[in-house]
Design goal:
The complex is a heterodimer of chains A (320) and B (601).
Chain A (H helix, E strand, L loop, with lengths): L3 E4 L3 H4 L4 E7 L18 E9 L3 H15 L3 E6 L4 H17 L5 E5 L5 H14 L4 E12 L11 E9 L13 E6 L4 H11 L3 E7 L10 H14 L6 E6 L4 H14 L4 E6 L3 H13 L4 E10 L5 E11 L1
Parallel strand pairs in A: 2-3, 2-5, 3-4, 5-6, 8-9, 8-11, 9-10, 11-12
Antiparallel strand pairs in A: 1-13, 6-13, 7-12
Chain B lengths: L1 E3 L15 H7 L8 H4 L4 E4 L6 H7 L2 H8 L9 E6 L18 H22 L9 H20 L16 H25 L16 H13 L9 E6 L6 H12 L6 E7 L21 E4 H6 L3 H18 L7 H4 L4 H19 L10 H15 L14 H7 L4 H18 L10 H24 L9 H23 L7 E6 L5 H12 L3 E7 L8 E7 L16 E5 L1 H9 L1 H11 L6 E4 L4
The chains are: A alpha/beta (320), B alpha/beta (601).
């Protein structure tokens, strides 16, 4: 079942039921406001706003807007992009408190502007702490990334810092087995290349968005451009496969990744999700199905704070 | 799904994926340059990515050694066991939960020891390695029952899972030890995984293995088994920069135990090894605890000529393996004939001058070597302003440009071959056209300086070098490159300069930026005699990476000189390179600098 794609303005008509808990992330992207500004806050009992305090100078404006939007219902959950333990501990405390207060039976999760890492940590925590909650996911699209830049100059982040496993997705890495890296490629070719260079896997599977499945309204050409850049980088590896994922469909992405995992059985499998958040959710679901898979994340050194994206007009709604 | 296959003699393949036959065919013996690696003793082998560290370790493994030496396992002088640390488990986020807690060192040591055991028994469980012999099975069985299990469990476990079936071969028994080690390893990680979302530690109840009481007795007993080499066991520990600081401290503690008569730790790392402190807070020191080999320094120092031979051998072997036979490296990467003929003409003029007694050099060819190529480059920089027409083609120049790092030769060669093949898809490529060679090395130089440094310059993370440091480094590189260019175009008696040393004392700030340059690969570090000392003593020499030469159309070949300059000048280059260079162009090379001949090659 593919997610339902609707106009942002139609959200209230589609999400008619109230939700105990709304979870979102403040960001330097104005897109982080797309869903909060279009849902009815009357139907929300509590809102958790994850905020990376190390990026405060870039996110503060939108953080304040989100706090204003949810007023007394809002709770800021402090995180730090370089310290996954902080996000995990604070999210856990907030979820436990929500459960204790009886406001976690139904959850609306706006995945739009989390970092891939914090989203994955949150998904694992939801699985652990709220196994019985009814969870609905929602994702606001972008009309354009790296706004206004020519195709070959588009960029979302530059440089990579530490390459690390994602907390809660350690997998089962067996020293005597070879390593197979499944990289879901997006715009961030530098980060992708950095992960390949850092891990130096024995084999690589590069996953690209299937034609026509992009959630972004423009930029098909940019996707192709970055696909080629990653491929060029990977030429020094002799065993490179390509596969396609539907990036507008986490269920389809999960199934395609499970296929890829089956192909590479008997190897240590590491997945690095680097496309949109819908595909990252698909990757998390695949890792839930196969706990041997390790998820990995390359911390960006700098984001395109001022021109990362323009908010789109649509959103995707899907059931967990 | 599409499968890409690559057909390129300069394909970069992980040495781990090479068979013993392929490794022995491709390996060029470099151990005369790195003697300490094959002699007993602990060694840190330091070098950037692509310097050939893993290939050396692959060659030292017993399957390759038996093949290369045409001998049996027992006849080998040492047993090399490859222990790669390039394993994402070492950077497992869950391990951060243990940081700054008492248990951290102990559990990390256990994880390292069990990882090592897995790799040791994985090596030994290869059926073709250990000779099939009834006596061997008996002693391996005895080793398992009387050494391995008691050392691990302190008492022999009753569990039937640990009993050996009568039909097992020696390789099977080693495989059983591999599986037990793997189980211990994964047991430790199962515990670690439980810590993911817990702020308070839970007790660990599994066994704990350490280096002195577990790994050393196991390895010591192994080396006494019949059929095994009588010499030391070499643990070939690859990519130690992957370790966390805690794990590096644990490994350093092993180095400090000085057990190298039985077990030598050969540790390869890039420059970002986390620490040289041990778990107890002491440091490990050379030469007492270990020897240090910096590959980049060796191949950019007095062993440059050997490096050229090594690369020529590598090219020849790769071409032969690819079916391109009887072609030398010089033939495959031809020089630009027209350019080289023009330079030879200038050579002849210098030799004639020398014959007339007008030369500066001692020998007839000295001036030709020193000045011909710079003169030619200078002629291109004249009114025609066509410096960019200088061609960097030719095996010799490509070797110099690779600046002592094998991969910096192989990678551009890979791109050159791919481009040549793209231009002539059906042809058997027997040489790389000069235009392709020149274009690729220029592109690589630009990418190295501009794209690579830009990536770091855009940093905004707490662990990344401060942006202002990167700016200073970038300024310094541009300042020095421009200065070297002006020297090349000058009438100085030494015009090929790639290195600097200080005539006074460098400030902390300058040393810090130069260290950053070394870490990022833009400089190599060496030493030379002090300028101001009549009684000996040495000072640091900083060598600009020759990969950058095309950016300023510098001459990467031949004998280079070094430039003694002041700390103030370097400070100025770091802050205001443009005004410094403008002053040098208008007023000439600063008087308080001195160019000294460094080497001839």
């Amino acid at each position: 079942m593919e997610p339902q794609k609707i106009n942002l303005l139609d959200i209230q008509g589609v999400l008619k039921e109230p939700y105990d808990l709304f979870i979102c992330s403040s960001s330097f992207e104005n897109r982080c406001l797309s869903i909060p500004n279009n849902i009815s806050t009357d139907k929300i009992r509590r809102a958790l706003i994850l905020s990376n305090m190390d990026l405060l100078e870039h996110i503060e404006t939108n953080k304040i807007k989100l706090e204003d939007r949810f007023r007394e219902k809002g709770r800021v959950v402090e995180a730090d992009t370089s310290n996954p333990l902080l996000a995990a501990d604070n999210l856990r405390i907030s979820l436990d408190q929500a459960i204790k207060d009886g406001v976690a039976d139904s959850i609306l999760l706006d995945v739009t502007s989390f970092t891939h890492e914090s989203l994955l940590i949150l998904l694992r925590l939801l699985e652990l702490c709220c196994p019985k909650s009814k969870i609905m996911g929602i994702y606001a699209n972008a009309s354009e990334y790296s706004v206004g830049d020519e195709v070959s100059y588009k960029w979302l982040s530059r440089g990579i810092g530490e390459v690390r496993s994602v907390l809660g997705f350690p997998g089962n890495i067996v020293p005597s087995q070879k390593t197979h890296l499944i990289l879901i490629v997006g715009y961030e070719h530098e980060r992708a290349a950095g992960i390949i260079e850092s891990i130096e896997p024995n084999s690589i599977a590069l996953g690209y968005g299937r034609f026509g499945s992009a959630t972004t309204e423009k930029d098909k050409d940019a996707n192709e451009h970055y696909m080629h850049l990653v491929e060029d980088m990977a030429t020094s590896f002799s065993d490179v496969n390509r596969f396609e994922i539907p990036c507008n469909d986490p269920y389809g992405t999960r199934d395609e990744l499970l296929n890829q995992i089956r192909i590479a059985m008997d190897m240590n499998i590491i997945i690095a999700p680097m496309n949109n958040k819908l595909s990252t959710i698909g990757a998390a679901w695949a890792a839930f199905k196969d706990e041997n898979v390790q998820m990995c994340y390359a911390q960006a050194l700098r984001y395109n704070y001022s021109n990362y994206s323009n908010p789109g007009l649509q959103c995707y709604i899907f059931d967990f | 799904m599409t499968k890409q296959t690559y057909n390129n003699p300069f394909q970069i393949t992980s040495p781990e994926d090479l068979t013993a036959e392929e490794t022995v065919s491709l390996f060029v013996d470099v151990f005369t340059d790195f003697r300490k690696i094959i002699d007993p003793g602990n060694v840190f082998l330091i070098g950037p990515r692509g310097a050939g560290k893993s290939m050396m370790f692959r060659y030292l493994q017993p399957d390759c050694q038996c093949l290369a030496r045409k001998c049996t396992l027992a006849e080998l002088p040492f047993l090399g066991v490859y222990v790669p640390l390039k394993n994402t488990n070492f950077a497992l986020s869950e391990l951060r939960r243990l940081e700054h807690r008492h248990a951290s060192d102990i559990l990390n040591e256990h994880i390292l020891v069990t990882h090592f055991c897995v790799k040791i028994f994985e090596t030994l469980s290869k059926p073709e390695l250990y000779p099939v012999d009834g006596r061997n099975i008996v002693v391996v069985r005895e080793f398992y029952n009387k050494t391995f299990l008691p050392t691990l469990f302190k008492t022999s476990p009753d569990d039937s899972n640990y009993q050996l079936e009568d039909t097992l071969s020696a390789a099977d028994i080693f495989a059983k030890m591999l599986h037990i080690s793997e189980k211990l390893y994964s047991q430790a990680f199962s515990y670690t995984k439980k810590l993911a979302f817990l702020q308070d530690l839970i007790p660990y109840e599994g066994p704990l293995c350490d280096y002195i009481d577990f790994l050393i007795p196991i390895l010591s007993a192994l080396s006494h088994l019949p059929g095994f080499p009588r010499g030391s066991i070499y643990l070939l520990i690859d990519d130690a920069h992957w370790l966390t600081e805690t794990q590096a401290r644990v490994l350093n503690s092993w180095v400090a135990t000085r057990t190298s008569r039985k077990v030598s730790l050969k540790i390869s790392t890039q420059y970002n090894y986390k620490t040289y402190y041990t778990s107890t807070g002491a440091t490990i020191d050379t030469p007492h605890d270990y020897s240090e080999i910096d590959i980049a320094t060796i191949y950019t120092g007095s062993n440059k000529s050997k490096y050229r031979e090594r690369i020529a051998d590598i090219v020849k072997k790769r071409l032969e393996m690819y079916g391109i036979e009887n072609i030398t490296a010089e033939q495959f990467f031809p020089e630009d004939t027209e350019q080289e003929n023009a330079i030879r003409e200038i050579d002849e003029e210098y030799k004639k001058k020398h014959d007339k007694g007008e030369g500066k050099g001692h020998y007839r060819g000295d001036d030709a070597l020193r000045y011909s190529r710079p003169d030619f480059i200078k002629s291109l920089a004249g009114p025609r302003k066509s410096s960019s027409k200088y061609s960097y083609a030719g095996f010799n120049q490509l070797v110099h440009l690779s600046s002592g790092i094998v991969r910096h030769f192989i990678h551009p060669a890979h791109l050159m071959y791919a481009e040549a093949k793209a231009q002539s898809p059906e042809a058997l490529i027997k040489f790389i056209p000069t235009s392709i060679q020149n274009a690729m090395v220029r592109e690589e130089a630009n990418s190295f300086l501009f794209s690579d440094l830009e990536k770091v310059e855009k940093a905004g993370h707490v662990d990344a070098p401060p942006k202002e440091d990167i700016k200073k480094l970038s300024n310094l590189i541009h300042g020095l490159g421009g200065l070297f260019r002006q020297i090349l175009l000058s009438e100085k008696s030494e015009r090929k300069v790639f290195s600097i040393a200080f005539s006074d004392t460098p400030s902390e700030n300058v040393e810090h930026i130069l260290d950053l340059g070394i870490q990022l690969g833009y400089f190599h570090r060496s030493t030379i005699g002090r300028k101001d000392s009549k009684s000996g003593g040495r000072t640091r020499l900083y060598v600009l990476n020759r990969r950058l030469a095309p950016i300023w159309t510098l001459d990467p070949t031949g004998f280079a000189a070094y430039l003694f300059l002041t700390n103030a000048l370097i400070e100025e280059a770091m802050e205001q390179p443009v005004s410094l260079l403008r002053r040098i162009v208008t007023k000439g090379i600063p008087e308080n600098t001195e160019i000294v001949q460094l080497e001839l090659f």
